[in-house]
Amino acid sequence: MPISSPENWIRESIEESAEVNAYPVHVPPTAALPYVRFMREGTDRPTTLGGASSPVGTFLVEIYASTVLQAKEIADAVRGALDNFSGESDGVTIDDVDLTDEKDGSPVFVDGDETPTFVVEQSYTIFWQE
């Protein structure tokens, strides 16, 4: 039985539009910059008089790059691919995607590097059908 969630669509859309690897939840230690990490932060499954309705998920997308400008360029590509999308992908119907927040994250130092890795954080609300 296929999984009825938008995670595969998120990964495929990011990798195609930004031409970088996208990892759900965990980034392997061997991953080379730039890359994107994404995760579901919460899911609401409201009920109506007729029973359960479509789920609404909040997703965090983090873009990691060696320069601020590269992180911003990738963030623009990701936003262009995800924001305002509706359609079908891998058997999942996505009703709507809304970018709800975008900001610079704090630079991080990966594996003892002396130069920072720059981060852009995006938050999305995704409405889909199960």
Query: How many domains make up the coordinates?
Result: 1
What CATH architecture would you give?
2-Layer Sandwich
SS element count, helices: 2
Q: pLDDT average, as an integer? A: 91
Class inferred from helices and paired strands? alpha+beta
Write the element-wise H/E pattern from the N-terminal end onward. HEEEEEHEEE
**How much beta, percentage-wise?**
35-45%
The stretches of 5 or more residues where confidence is low (pLDDT under 50) are none
The helicity comes to: 10-25%
- In the CATH scheme, the class would be Alpha Beta
Largest sheet: 6 strands, mixed
Q: Specify Rg, calculated over alpha carbons.
A: 16 Å
Distance between the termini: 12 Å
Q: Main sheet: which strands, in order across?
A: 1-2-5-8-7-6
The CATH superfamily turns out to be Phage tail protein-like
What's the β-strand tally? 8
Shape: elongated
CATH topology: STM4215-like
Write a structural description.
This protein has about 130 residues and is an alpha+beta fold. The model has no long low-confidence stretch (mean pLDDT about 90). The strands form 2 sheets. Strands 1-2-5-8-7-6 form a 6-stranded mixed β-sheet. A two-stranded antiparallel sheet has the order 3-4. About 20% of the residues lie in helices and about 45% in strands. It is built from 2 helices and 8 strands, in the order αβββββαβββ. The protein has a single domain, classed as STM4215-like (2-Layer Sandwich), CATH 3.30.2000. A hairpin with a 2-residue loop joins β6 and β7 (about 90-105).
